[in-house]
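Comment thread on ticket #2218

A.B. wrote:
> Attaching the input chain for the structure job we discussed in standup.
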Amino acid sequence: MNLNIIISEADMLVPNDVPIADKVVWLNALNQDFFNVVKIPKITTFECVSGQSDYVLLSEISQKNIDLVMVGMFTYKSLVRDDVTPAQNAYTFSDDTRTLSLFPAPYSSLKGVLRYRRVATSQFLSTMLTVPPDAPEEYHWTFIPGLASMLANSQDDMTKASNYESQYKAAWNVAAQNYQAGAGQ
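C.D. wrote:
> Ran it. Output below, let me know if you need it in another format.
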């Protein structure tokens, strides 16, 4: 489902004169909010080289979304979020350079595993309405009541806005529970 379909469906639910550009701004906000509510785990691997401490990783990874770093059988703790004693393995991640730094560096060539939570990566434009939201396809429909809620709010129809908001937020909460329980992995 692309943005054009979402906008058309929301317009049927809440007839309005809101410009497309404003609707796209709201869809960008919904796209970001989805991943704030629904924490979808992803895993990436990297090859460690003996004595090398720095590894450049995917651009969609950020420090705040990393929840597990392992090299071989050894878990590394975040120097930013965790209490780390000098004898423990630790890591830092630079959002600017997308570099994972391991302390101490692996002592031999091992496979590294990093688990992180997905984030929205798209910035929608009013000139490109054929793109889908970043959320998994089974949740694209939730953007219709999400946008309808914002449209109803813009018309001061708080009852309708509240009803649509309850619909999409309930679906997002179920999705969050499913991914938390491991159903989405």
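A.B. wrote:
> Thanks. Noting for the ticket: The first helix runs from residue 3 to 13.
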